[in-house]
Amino acid sequence: MCCTSRRGVGFKFDRYAAGDWHSPGDAGLVPAGREAKQHFMDNWGSMQGSNVKKLQLAAIGLSALTAMSMSGCGSTNAGPANTTIKVAYQQFGNYQPLEKLLNTAKSEVEKANPGTTVTLVPIKAAENDYYTKLSLMNKSASTAPDIAYEDTFLIKSDAAAGYLLPLDDYLSKWPEWNQFVTSAQDAGKGDDGKIYGVSMGTDTRALWYNKELFQKAGITVPWQPKTWQDIITAAQTIKDKVPGVMPLNVYSGKAAGEASSMQGFEMLNYGTPTPLFDSASQKWVLGSQGFKDSLAFIHKVYSEGLTPTPQQALDAQINSIVGGQWLPQSKLAIALDGSWLPSNWGPTGATPWPGWEKTMATAAMPTQNGQAPGSVSMSGGWTLSVGAKTKSPDLAVKFLETALNQKNSLSYDIDGAQIAVRKDVMSDPAYKSSSSAFGVLSDVVAVTKFRPANTDYPKVSNNIQVAMEAVMTGQQTVDQAAQAYDQAVSSAVGPAKTTGGK
Amino acid sequence: MGGTGVLPVGTVTSPSAGEPRFPSRKKRPRPARLVPLLPATVLLAVFLLGPVVWSFYGSFTNSALTGAAANHTSFVGLDNYSSLFTSSAFPMSLLLTLIFVFASAVIGQNLIGLALAVLMRKSNKVVRAAVGASVVAAWVLPEIVAAFGAYAFFSNTGTLNVILHAVGLPTINWLYDTPMLAVTLANVWRGTAFSMMVYSAALMNIPPEITEAATVDGAGGWKRMWNITLPMIRRSISTNLMLITLQTLSVFTLIWVMTAGGPGSKSSTLPVLAYQEAFQFSNLGYGTAIATILLVVGAIFSIIYLRVLKPEVD
């Protein structure tokens, strides 16, 4: 009983926390009103006719509450209908560029369409919680946003869930749509082939390393490892020569969430001959050597002390600790991390770090044994999507097209350290001199891979994190963890969608 | 015999003790008299019974936060339960939950609460006030604050390790190496005040004459405790055990903040597992099935307490 009521309250709480912008008065009053009624009911038994005063008081209280909640409703319904849209986005840490972009688009759209209002609805949450809160909002028509800041990796899931509006009809009439590179257009596709999101920019992943620490360890820079073993050798050298420094960070385990799966595991796995997902047959590959080798790499670096300790790595704040503390403070020599790191270090970033360009350098992540194409990268990125429950799709699309026009995309890609997806942005001189074009970050677009972001991906991704955590903490051997993964994935997606394994 | 409501009106001249005092009340209750009860019944049904029924229903569906199942939720029968009982995570989680309840509530909070209550009766005012205030302080803290406090105390560079280090004892990473011990101790710290207050109130209701009589008869401290005190506060023990068991079964914030169920799944009790399945892995139906099991576990505990301690028998 306790748990169920907790779940109920949780749902409500999330909705209120996310902001019931339709009727803020109601959001506050419903629980209070309910409590008052409960008191009223509690008192009823003891009244027995004599306690009329209490009854009257309770009745007055109730009617006052009703009146208040009714007036609350009335005031928020003011203004013409269908001209307000809500934009839901993630607000976490000090990441400003997104908010800046949305605010610019808001004022431009409101100016161009008099009488309309764009309401920004920040969801203050880390990545996993953001997905959860956004899904909960999407479940009900009264809370669903008109525009959502949507991770490409959830597009197929959320499209299948009926949360997103297909945009094909609108985009075919948008002259700027063909400025988007094909891979970016495809990133917004659902399982049914329709477009559900427009890419805001992408990202790549590579090895970041600290040149000063490398020089202290006597490793020549620029450094470009050719195999996984080269990375381990360099890390071992740093461990021996520069005590007190963590040689290597590879995200791992459930605490880092999707970062573990993508920056960590998949950067390894997609450099082996057997990838996670067989795109020809559209099946998940089980029991592969590449999977075990990737886990074995994780086990090796964590068990040999080349990484942060498992305790440090399982800190829920690990994502911001790496970019915000360890790298700027030169406590970490090599980080397998995303192209967006410099957005933390700019003058407006969370951890301004003037001169980071002189200390940090990038190297492409090599394939396992240096096999062709020699290096590997993973790409993701976010889109703007239109909610399927929107009452003003035209205005929502206008907002989307304004936010992602050339001018706004350019400044967002530069401010947010995004890898550009519009051709007219890529060729812009301002972009070319930005941090997005730093080192190999834009070069690895040539070898980059997108995740198999079909509807089952989130479940598989979670199981990858479970397997990683099991081997990094030594709770399971590589073989045990791989076997547990095979079983879990097989039952999560259904045996028909898997290939290989036992 | 009397008071069953079948006696004809006016046949009884001397009402027996169990019957209402007013003659008019001896009438068969009119249906209209039940009307005032209706709102309460409806509210209870909607807000207390409703979620339980909904939980049972939800656990038989494949309801999800995202993906095709979110769009077309369908009835899947016992699928959630069969995969629960064949998964490796669930039995472990159930065991952890039982250990957590037994160690932190039944043993920890209950016994320490009783001991504190007994000892405080024998102590002077100053000690009583000081102990009472410090124990209750942990209890009045909001759960999230208490959880952060416990996290700061047990974390690797936290207060406990600093103290251990200062007195020359070896330190361990409590949250990582002994997560269950850490969350159990934290829950004992947080919840003992409740048991202490319940037992303090119960002890005050024992007439001193009985204790004195026992002392005159030559009963020692332990004997008085066993033969007088415990039987007389039996009903409070039963109520207290039931309340703290149900409370501890549903502890989520404390564990989530301190260890998030980890490392691995070493402190994933049922509420943590249910949350992870429902809101992190998006399987609402599956998470609801876990919540339903939790409900059943709570019901079993309640029945055991009611049967064993027989609070209603005098």
TrEMBL record, chain B:
- Keywords attached to this entry: Cell membrane, Membrane, Transmembrane, Transmembrane helix, Transport
Record's signal peptide: none
Annotated transmembrane regions: 34-57, 94-119, 131-154, 174-199, 241-264, 284-306
Give the UniProt subcellular location, in the record's own words.
Cell membrane
Q: Which portions of the chain have biased composition (kind: Low complexity)?
A: 1-13
Q: Which residues form the ABC transmembrane type-1 domain?
A: 95-305
The superkingdom of the source organism is: Bacteria
Does this entry carry the keyword Transport? yes
Question: Where do the segments described as Disordered lie?
Answer: 1-28
How is this protein situated with respect to the membrane? Answer: Multi-pass membrane protein
Per the record, the similarity remark reads: Belongs to the binding-protein-dependent transport system permease family.
For this entry, the protein name equals Sugar ABC transporter permease
Record organism: Arthrobacter silviterrae
